[in-house]
Every structure is written in structure tokens, then in C-alpha cells.
Amino acid sequence: MHLAAGHVVEVSAELLWAGLVLVTLIAAVAVLLAVGWRNRRHVERLRSERDVAVQVALRTEEQALREAEALSDVLEQRVRQRTEALEALHRVALEISVLTDRQTSLELVADQARLLVDADGSVILLRDSEGLRLAAAAGSVATLVAEGVTPGVPIAERAIREERSVQGPGEPVPGMRCIECATPLRGPRGSVLGALCVGRMSDEAFDPESVDTLERFGVHAAIAVENAQLYDQVRSLSTVRERERLARELHDGLAQVIAFMSAKGEAASAHLEAGRTGEARRQLEEMRGMVEQARLDIREAILGLRAAAVITDEGLVATLESYVRRLGRTADLSVRVRDAGWRALAPEAELHLLRIVQEALTNVRKHSGRHEAEVLLDMRDGVAVLEVRDSGRGFDSAAVHEGMGLGSMRERAREAGGELELRTAPGEGTLIRVCVPVSPAEGVGGAAAAG
Q1: pTM, two decimal places
Q2: For residue 24, what are the contacts with CB-CB under 8 A and spacing of at least 6?
Q3: Residues 352, 416 contacting (CB under 8 angstroms)
């Protein structure tokens, strides 16, 4: 009994221990399950937070992409606008660089400045001894100018004083408000020629790009203005030289006529004293013929002066056509002018060519024995060609040398930038040809230098 009781106690102890172990295991499993559940919820929460973060990131990325695309579009548009402005600026600069007439240059500069910066009106104010004077206007301000108003002076004076582009409110006339912008016009040597001003009849200011475009255009405009001023000076000098040349030619021609008439008068007087009335009459007839020649020479010179006065505006072809019509009525000479593709040269060059034609036609009238001639104006492989042709008696060019005005015609041909060629022989008529090379870059408006 005692052994059995001890055995029962041992078994009970083992069962108790096993129960404790089982409870511990159950508790451990419960703890593990609880921790796992908690971890699972934490993982799910982390996943949820991750998904939210991903969605936010995706939305942020999409927004950033949209903003980047919008910014790219804005930048592309600004680059395109800037490129268009620069191209327009370059095109306008080329247009004004080839102009030689001062007022035409100023008017084109004013008009193009207005268009380049989308302004309503523009003016060019140039310096002189009394301050700023209006040189050209374009757009809406033209009406004000016609009424005697000179807009833009205050803003122009400020731009010149501060040596930079400026803008601000303006009031051309009382009650008229606008926004004005002005940039100084500086010549290539740094001198300030004046100012270029633009304005808008609103409160919309000019953006930085427009101001920059106006400044850049102002550089080209100043060069064009100074070039036109220099061209005026050269043209004035050429006019003085031309007048001096004509005065010498008229003086020499009239001096020869007077000397001839004096000699014939003395001869006629001597014949009359000797009773040789027939010979005296012959001398007087020669005097009358010389007087008639002098009258025609003077009329041709007057016609030539009239033609030279309009050649700058009308061009060589139109001037020659008008000249030969008048010449035909006064000198019994029929001249055909044929334009075979003439392209205008610089006014000085065309003036020299006009004088060559006049001298050549005078020779036709005096020496050819014919009353017809032809003038051809052509352009051949970049060379301006002028020809004066007659089918008269011709002459021996070796015997004449530089007589009959040939020396003067050769000199004028060289000053026009070309060379003169003479083809003639007794009984075969006469051809005067002048060739003036024209560079492709010059196009209309300039002749190449003699090469």
C-alpha cells in the first residue's frame, strides 16, 4: 500500500508537471498568436500606408510632369517668339542697311520699330544744335505730328541722359495717357544721334523682351541713320563736283565758240573792206552755223541738268526716256531707248552713265551725219551694260584719241565703277559701250568698284 501510494504520488507529480508544461505551451502559443496578429495588423497598416504613399507619389509625379510640360510649352513659346523677333530684327536690319535716302531710312526705322514691339506709334528724335527735333513718325502718332505735336521728347531726353532704355507713362497732349519706351541711338563712333521712342495707347507696359528687342534694333537703326547722313554728305560733294565739271565743260565749249566767232568776224570784216562780199557772206554764214550749234549745245546742257535733277527719284531708264523725247524736239535727233533687263545702280553711278549718254548723243548729232541712234541698257552675268549706237559715218579712233569728249566719257565710266569701250571705223558707225560690274550682295542700289 505504501508503495502504491508513492507510485500514485509520483504519477500525479508527473501529470502536474506535464499540465504545467502544457499550460505554458498553450500560453506561449497564445502569446505567439497575439504577437502574430498584432504584427499582421502592423504589416497591413504599413502596406496601406505604403499604398497611400505610392498613390501620393504617383499624383505628385503626374503633377510634376504636367507642370514640367506646361513650363516646357511656355519656354518653347518664348524661344519661338524670341527667334521670330530676332529673325524680324535681322530682316529689318538688312532692309535699312541698303537704303541710301536719309528720310526713307528714318521712316522705315520708325515703322518697323513699332511693328517689332507691338506698339501703336513710334517717333525718331535726332539731336541738333537746338536740342531734339522730330525726324520721322509712324502709326497713331502721325496724326499728332500733323497737328504740330512732337511726342516722346521727355522720355527720349531721359533715355539719353541715363544712357539706357527707359519706359514710363506719357501724355503727348493733355488728357491723352499712354505708355512710352525710348532707347538712345548711338552712332558707330559712340556719339548719341538721338532716340527711338515707341508708345502704346494703354497702360500695358513693355515686357523685358520687347525692351531688349528695341535696344537691339536701335543699334542697327543708329548705323542706318549715320550711314544715310554720310551718304547725304557724299551726295552733296558729288553734286558740287558735278556742277564744277559742267561749268568747265560749258566754259570750254563757249570759249571755243566765242573764239571762232571772233576769228570769223574779223575775217568777214577784212573781206568787206577788200570788197569781197561773197567771201564775207560765207564767213558770216559759218558764224551763224556756229551760233546755232552753240544754241543746241546750251539747250542740251539745260536738258541734261534737268535730267540729272530727277535721276535719283526716277532712275536711269525713265530719265533717259524723258531726256531723248525732249532732245528729239529740239535737236532733230530720234533716239530709241531699249531696256533689256536693267537693274538700278547707285544714283552717282547712274548720273555718270547719263552724262556719258548725253555726250555720245551730242557726238551723234554733230559728227555722225545721221539723225537716229539707239541706247541699250542691259544686265549680263552680273555686269551692267550701257550701249550708245549709231549707223553714221564713223571715224578713225586712232586719229581722234581723246577728242570728241572721249576723255570725259572714260573718266565718268571709271567713276561709275566700270570701263568704256569704243568701236568705230570710217563708214561703219560708232558704238560706245560701258560695263559696270555689280556684286550680288548689292542688288538694287549699288555698283561694284572698278576692278
Answers
A1: 0.48
A2: none
A3: yes
Q: How far apart are CA 291 and CA 258, in angstroms?
A: 9
Is residue 121 packed enough to be buried (19+ CB in 10 Å), middle (13-18) or exposed (0-12)?
buried
Rounded Cα gap, residues 200 and 122, in angstroms: 9
Which phi and psi (to 5°) does residue 165 adopt? -75, 135
Looking at residue 365, the DSSP 8-state letter turns out to be: I
198 and 213 Cβ atoms separated by less than 8 Å? no
- Calpha distance 166→186 (Å, rounded): 15
300's grid cell:
542740251
Mark residue 54 as left, alpha or beta (left: phi above 0; alpha: psi -120 to 50; beta: remaining): alpha
- What pairing do the DSSP bridges indicate for beta strands 430-437 and 372-380? unpaired
| Contact yes or no for 388/360 (Cβ under 8 A) | yes
d(CA 177, CA 174): 8
| 368 in Cβ contact with 392 (< 8 Å) | yes
Q: What is the distance of C-alpha 248 from the center of its chain? A: 38
Note the helical H segments in 332-421: 347-363, 397-400, 406-415
In this structure, the dihedral spanned by the alpha carbons of residues 108, 114, 120 and 126, taken in order and rounded to 10 degrees, is -70
Is residue 378 within 8 Å of residue 348, measured between CB atoms? no
The rounded distance, in Å, linking the Cα atoms of 405 and 196 is: 50
**Kind plus residue range of the DSSP H or E element containing 194:** strand 192-200
How would you classify residue 184: left for phi > 0, otherwise alpha for psi between -120 and 50, otherwise beta?
A: beta
What three-state secondary structure class fits 228? helix
Mean pLDDT for each 10-residue chunk of the chain (451 residues)? 54 68 70 66 72 73 74 71 65 62 79 87 88 89 81 91 90 75 84 90 87 86 77 64 63 67 78 81 78 66 60 80 83 88 85 88 86 92 93 82 75 91 91 87 42 35
Beta bridge partners of 136: 124
Q: Which of 175, 174, 137 is nearest to 156 (CA)?
A: 137
Which of 324, 124, 346 has its CA nearest to residue 238? 346
The Cα 389–Cα 375 span in angstroms is 7
Q: Which letter, b or e, does each residue of 229-266 get, where b requires 16 or more Cβ atoms within 10 Å of its Cβ?
A: eebeeebeeeeeebeeeeeebeeebeeebeebbeebee
